[in-house]
Design a protein that fits this description.
By secondary structure, this protein is α+β, with helices and mostly antiparallel strands. The protein has one domain. It is built from three helices and five strands. A five-stranded mixed sheet has the order 1-4-5-2-3. It is rod-shaped, with a radius of gyration of 30 Å.
């Protein structure tokens, strides 16, 4: 009879050990799922932050282009309206389009859309599309917009107008 008690005790101990192992595996599984979701959320937040920073850098790159900077105006940084219009003709579709210039600016801006909107002056309310490389399949891209206010200097009329640049940067959507 003593051997039956030991066998039953051994089975009971084995069952308890098995249950402890199952509970530990279950807890480890829950911990892994929690860790994965937390790290994925953190990664998505980091990617969003980087996309925002890249959009701001692109907007600053547009404002600092010497191709459109004012030459003689002493009031600080501004954009020359005549140079801006000439650049828009070179990069836009139509008669003034320059393929070599488009390739150069595509290297600087990649998938983006840049539009200038005048707020004051004779051109108030008008939009000037400067650069447009909107992706052909926008569903696979995320869009980050930045609005930057600047002054547009008209050297012919010797006037300044307030405007803003709408800079939209497209980044390929992360899968997974």
């Amino acid at each position: 009879m003593a051997t039956q008690g030991r066998g039953r005790d051994a089975q009971l101990a084995f069952g308890e050990t098995l249950m402890v192992i199952m509970v530990l595996v279950f807890l480890i599984g829950i911990g892994m799922v929690f860790y994965y979701s937390a790290s994925r959320s953190s990664l998505n937040t980091e990617l969003q932050h980087r996309e925002d920073v890249q959009a701001v850098l692109l907007a600053q790159r547009v404002l600092s282009m010497p191709e459109v900077a004012c030459d003689r105006y002493a009031g600080g940084s501004c954009i020359d309206s005549l140079k801006l219009a000439a650049l828009a003709r070179m990069l836009g579709p139509g008669a003034g389009h320059d393929a070599a210039a488009w390739t150069t600016y595509y290297g600087r801006f990649a998938e983006a859309a840049i539009t200038v909107r005048y707020l004051t002056g004779a051109q108030a309310g008008q939009r000037l599309p400067l650069y447009d490389a909107t992706p052909k399949d926008p569903g696979n891209f995320t869009a980050q917009q930045q609005f930057i206010f600047t002054t547009i200097y008209d050297p012919v009329a010797d006037e300044q107008d307030l405007a803003y640049l709408n800079v939209t940067r497209y980044a390929r959507r992360q899968t997974g």
